[in-house]
């Protein structure tokens, strides 16, 4: 069951050929997906042969096979982790009951909404990243971008499979709509804010894959606990793919910092203008990008208090991060959690029912995980003997969603008036001038083993290939 049948038009490990109706429905969606890829997928990449990994089985050690493929011929398919027929629901009001193989009628609307919202982010990020290939800093990085893009395409397949298999006609309509909304579109945008932002350059791409793909990790982890077993099994497999996306972000930012630190030492300066003149990205700009991507991403977890979050948990649709490893009662009734709000111009903590605060619980888990990687970036600076440190901004900085939306706050967490915000905004968030400068560095480097001046080479290549391997054949 766990090995993948590649002889089918749609590779899968779910015995798709046993269900002709479903197979036909998905086969009729498939050309629309390819059209979408051709229209808004990676620009100008049609003839490239890219060194990509493809899943061969969902077992940990048969995971991937590497080879040069054209992206539109990538074997997108449907892969679920193996099921456990005895699996029990382990949180919420149905605790101890058998996990569901089908969607219970009373939870249908909420489950569909959860799946559509997750599904919508997958093609959105491909759209956001579609121009980046034109300015890649190396073949190695170009290959990583394309790997992320094809896997986001597969994540869309994963959600579309659930919609087609379990939600009938409206599921099929939702699957079509996933190909029709478009990131940043005036009339028909993607559902969530961060997925309508631009990813204009490679520093933004690395920040996005570090922070926003990590949001993906936490959302998928919460869904991997779901009482709806097909959702739990498909998100578990998606998580193994997500790990690589976060690696691309973490190592990408790390290599940018490494190059900047090297030039700071060579030129014996911390003057941002001198670093810029030497063709690298000054630490202030890196910090401002970090502030932006962090604040936009933590908004994705939703309002700090949410009755929907309580319903999703109590009904077993969405658990907490690592629900199974927690040793409380998994019901959470009568428990409280601290959230922030502004009272009389001051930030104060307020105890609220934990069930209503589960978005905040997940956001706080995400924050802990994010901070750890920022610490690893700071190690690069420490090793280079540079005293500057990167930090994540205060949770209330630059928020658009929940009780903290619209508060004027410095990255350190001080409430500021409109005049100070206006005066300091460009020190705290990337300014048009920062974007223009970073854009000016984005030239295309495609000779094997060559890297743009603003980024250090990686320590290792992909799949133990050398760093100067021909990761992309341009034909
Ligand atoms: Fe994804
Ligand atoms: Fe991802």
UniProtKB/TrEMBL annotation:
Regions crossing the membrane: none
One MF term in the entry's GO annotations: oxidoreductase activity
Keywords: Oxidoreductase
InterPro entries: Aromatic_CoA_ox/epox (IPR052703), Benzoyl_CoA_Oase_BoxB (IPR017635), Ferritin-like_SF (IPR009078), RNR-like (IPR012348)
EC number: 1.14.13.208
Top-level division of the source organism's lineage: Bacteria
PANTHER family: 1,2-PHENYLACETYL-COA EPOXIDASE, SUBUNIT C (PTHR30458:SF0), PHENYLACETIC ACID DEGRADATION PROTEIN PAA (PTHR30458)
Name listed for the protein in its UniProt record: Benzoyl-CoA 2,3-epoxidase subunit BoxB
Organism whose genome encodes this protein: Ottowia flava
Lineage: Bacteria, Pseudomonadati, Pseudomonadota, Betaproteobacteria, Burkholderiales
